[in-house]
Amino acid sequence: MRQEFSYRQVVHLNASLHQQHMPYRIHFQNAQTMVLVPMGVHVCDGKEEPVKRAIKAFFQREGMKIMFSEDNDLIFPAGVFQVADAE
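RE: above sequence
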């Protein structure tokens, strides 16, 4: 079964990240792509791995597996896309 993101998930994930004091926002791009946006350069230092863990845990509770692009800016349902290097 094809997995897709919903706008509801984005709203709840942003609330969860806010409650955990993670300086990131999630933007819904489409049903197959979300964008991870840092809220500032220095405030995010050292929080890259914790935010990835928080996002993975959120979607695990939703019954979804996800993957991140190589630069960690994009989030996809696992197995949907093969992420290629940008040229």
